[in-house]
Design a protein that fits this description.
Blueprint: H1 3-18, H2 33-45, H3 48-62, H4 70-76
Length: about 100
């Protein structure tokens, strides 16, 4: 490998590490190749979807049941908490229907 190729590879890997990414090799079945590449691409994004996917995969691999209270925690994070919004429905009678 020439020195220019080595420099290019070093610069590429340096740019990856600045973004918080690392290059690594994985052994697996040929049938799973596209799945693993897609999973790696989604996890590399680092957005909320990546965090959700990472948590789901970790939970599935660990074999532990999901933590209880997830819905309650999501409701507590809602922007409507403390907004004093009235969600009560009016108690009106229905319309008359002729059968």
């Amino acid at each position: 490998m020439s020195s220019s190729q080595k420099r290019a590879i070093e610069k590429y890997r340096s740019r990856l590490s600045k973004r918080g990414l690392a290059r690594f090799e994985v052994l697996g079945r040929k049938a799973d190749q596209d799945l693993i590449r897609t999973l790696a691409r989604l996890l590399a994004d680092g957005d909320a979807e990546a965090a959700r996917l990472r948590a789901a995969v970790q939970q599935n691999i660990s074999g532990q049941p999901a933590k209880k209270g997830g819905i309650l925690a999501a409701l507590r994070r809602s922007p409507l908490v403390g907004a004093d919004v009235d969600f009560s429905r009016s108690k009106e009678g229905g319309r008359k229907v002729e059968i």
